Amino acid sequence: MRELQAERLELIPVGAHNARELWDVLNAPDLRKYQDIPRVRAEEFERQVRARPKALRPNATGRFEWLMKAGSPPAALGWISLRVNDRTPRVGEVGYSLTPDARGHGYATEGLRAVIDEAFGAGELDELQACIVPANVASRYVLDRTGFREERMLRSGAVIRGRHVDVLLFSLTRAEWDRARRSAASASG
């Protein structure tokens, strides 16, 4: 995987060398409110990260993650993941979260745009999906701003803190992404 750049962010690929840093972010307060983040020991998390694919390329499957960093010196603000299942290798699912202090500044939108470009470029995916808990209004805004459209409600679509919860499924196709890029290019040129 390669490092990605956004306007104010660096997106650093997560590997064995920085898995502990992501583990620390995943254990920040309030990150589990809307997500089912597994509770594993740091050593087990590092083992899982070492087993992940090393490059996002056509037909690659697995979990790809980036730490979002900003500032000087760069500090971790959150993470973004892309999961590609081997049963549906042309469809990826994105997820993201920010530490409480980093929320409300547009970082998730910037970071997600960079990952979308990478997923449709290097990964050659046909579609990206995202699931959110309906109460997570901030995440809905991020998905709206990055071109995702709401598809449907999935009843009991996730388990968060041991409870089954409904989730909203959003999607963005390669064709929609291409149209938006062409439209932005013609508007600026």
Structure description:
With 189 residues, the chain is α+β, with helices and mostly antiparallel strands. It is built from 5 helices and 8 strands. The chain has helices at 19-26, 42-50, 107-121, 137-145, 174-188, and strands at residues 4-5, 10-13, 62-70, 75-84, 91-98, 127-132, 149-160, 163-173. The protein has an 8-stranded mixed sheet with strand order 1-2-3-4-5-6-8-7, with helices on both faces. β7 and β8 form a beta hairpin. The two termini are 31 Å apart.
Offer a quick outline of the entry.
This protein has 189 residues and is of the alpha+beta class. The protein has five helices and eight strands; from the N terminus they run ββααβββαβαββα.
SSE layout and pairing:
Blueprint: E1 4-5, E2 10-13, H1 19-26, H2 42-50, E3 62-70, E4 75-84, E5 91-98, H3 107-121, E6 127-132, H4 137-145, E7 149-160, E8 163-173, H5 174-188
Measure the end-to-end span: 31 Å
Low confidence ranges: none
Largest sheet: 8 strands, mixed
- Radius of gyration, whole Å: 16 Å
